[in-house]
Amino acid sequence: MRDADDSTFAAFETWRGESAMRAAAYDAVCAAHARTRALAEEAPLLSLRQQTLARTMLARRPSRMRWRVVATGAVLLAAAPLAAYGISAWTAPVAPPPAEIFRTGIGQQADVTLADGSIVTLDTATTLEVRVSEGMRRVRLDGQGWFKVKPASTPFEISAAGRTFVATAGEFNVRTDARRMRAFAADGTLKLVGADSSLALPAGRMIAVSGDDVTVRTPSNPGSFSGWRTGALQLDDVPLAEAVSEFNRYRRHPIRLADGRAGALRVSGAFRTTGSLAFVDALAVGFPVRVKRDDDAGIVISAR
Predict the structure, then answer these.
(1) What are the structural domains, with CATH classification, of the chain?
(2) Residue 142 above 90 pLDDT?
(3) What is d(CA 42, CA 40) in angstroms, rounded to the nearest whole number?
């Protein structure tokens, strides 16, 4: 009724006041509307709300037809109290689908099921921004995620570290770090798209992007990159500095390296993502390092 003129509003109020049943029906519609608005941001309804808003946008008629519907509704306004709500729904501006934000804390992992049926497993300290609706499948990742993309005609876009990947189906591991972004196609094809060119990443291939440097290879041990999903951390002859950085992603109190000599040592082995203490114990026994534990700095490793 907010868009009705004074005469129409007065006529409706007269009509409603003539019958207690009419007034009760109108009040019930208003109460239902209020409850719907209150529930709009509840997590279980948010994905459905996104899809509904998107379908409304796609279904909107040209402005001339829309005004014809509104005018006809004004003539019939006295026929039923539901007409008033119908007019409001038709004329209210429709906002674009809102983004959903999912986050994991340090040491946490979580599965996120999207509105299209795709599933994203988030690793520690990861943020995922989701916009999925009819005609749109778009996410932005900061951290690490395993994507199970459900087949659909609408491309699935993954933005990470300023780069955009596109897929229609498959399973992919995407990760961003401070200085590089990596992606692995476990199944299906992942395309890196840019303003001037695109690069297809078939199953079994991995891409690493650091600035303008793009490297594509076939990893000898894909588990060393994607084993985190089962809590495994595989170290294959990597510098100790890199190994410590991996463990620190799952620790609230990071391990520190006191000098470059310690960080340059090469290490290998299989550990749990939560097994940093076992890793440090192994270092103290088998490597030329000193391990110091204190309450303030946590664990400090130095060369000896």
Answers:
(1) 6-91 (no CATH), 100-220 (2.60.120.1440), 231-303 (3.55.50.30)
(2) yes
(3) 6
